[in-house]
Amino acid sequence: MLRTTPAVPLPHRTPVTNPTLWIAPPGPSDAPLSADVECLKWQAYLALRNVPNLLRTDVDPAGALDALPNLQTDNTTLLAAHLIPQWADQHAQPEPDYVSLEARDESRAWVALLEGTIHAALLVSQPTPSYLESLVSMRPAPPAPINALLTPPPAPLTGLTSLLPAFGARISYDAIYARYKDAIAALSDRLGTDKWFLASPEPTPLDALAFAYLHAIVVSSNATLRIEVTRRVNLVAWEWRVREQVRAAFK
User: Fold this and answer.
1) Measured between alpha carbons, how far is 10 from 159 in angstroms, rounded to an integer?
2) What is residue 232's DSSP assignment?
3) Which residue, 13, 39, 194, 245, is the most exposed by fewest CB within 10 angstroms?
4) At what angle do helices 223-230 and 173-191 cross, to 10 degrees?
5) CA distance 191 to 182
6) How far is the C-alpha of 84 from the C-alpha of 71, rounded, in Å?
7) How does DSSP classify residue 230?
8) Is the pLDDT of residue 219 over 90?
């Protein structure tokens, strides 16, 4: 016998009253800072520009637009990360510029260093998750294989005399760590005693990116990475100061 049951009511949808940044969850005892360096970069970017917004950390990365982070500006609008600066320009003071055209050009080299050499070191330092952990983890997968971050690209696993087609990549971990040490030393020298990188009077996108990577290193379980930062007083003091500023923006 057929029986009709009443419809199950959908849970009440809370309206979005403030811009909300969707990020990967924080690490243990590190809230509200995301454990994902890309999400943390955009957290710092908005915080350093004094753009008020809320955080949401319960979003499955598979449900994000392109990839986390996303910015939900109202009940119907969700922005991918690359659109956040344009939105911020409409809701805050203009983005601070670099002190000169030369400094702006130089910033591109530091961005390449952070997203290439330093990001590669972070990737190889991470323990490989088990199959079960990879299924239940909310943390997004790396956006690119490590060999795509290295310049020049590593040689393939198979040589010219192999009967098999070239595949894989011959990663030299010693070379990655050596480049990482040089990169951290250069970063420390360039910061010196300045308040912001490249002697900018106000924080720029480079500062948000540098903070994201320095913080990821400071809280990393890999002592080899951490010691290269912690032995440099100016980087430690700078990271701590910016960390407190970013935390305060999301309380």
Assistant:
1) 59
2) -
3) 13
4) 20
5) 14
6) 7
7) H
8) yes
What is the C-alpha to C-alpha distance for residues 244 and 57, in angstroms, rounded to an integer?
20
CA distance linking residue 75 with residue 166, whole number of Å? 49
Beta carbons of 123 and 222 less than 8 angstroms apart = no
What 3-state class would DSSP assign to 22?
strand
What pTM was computed for the model? 0.82
pLDDT bracket for residue 143 (50, 70, 90): very low
Assess contact for 205 and 191: CB atoms under 8 A: no
Nearest 5°: phi and psi at 232? -115, 105
Give the Cα separation of 233 and 250 in Å (integer): 26
- pLDDT of 63 reads 84
Diameter of the chain by CA atoms?
81
Identify whether 32 is preceded by a cis peptide bond (ω within 30 of 0).
yes
Q: Mean pLDDT over residues 135-140, rounded? A: 49
Q: Are 35 and 41 in contact (CB under 8 A)?
A: no
Structure token digits, residue 29? 């005892």
- Give the C-alpha separation, 181 to 226, whole Å: 11
> What distance in Å separates the CA atoms of residue 51 and residue 46, rounded to the nearest whole number?
5
Q: At what angle do helices 223-230 and 205-218 cross, to 10 degrees?
A: 130
Q: Which helix (H) or strand (E) holds 45?
A: helix 37-48
Residue 20 dihedral angles phi and psi, to the nearest 5°: -130, 125
Distance CA 24, CA 2 (A): 46
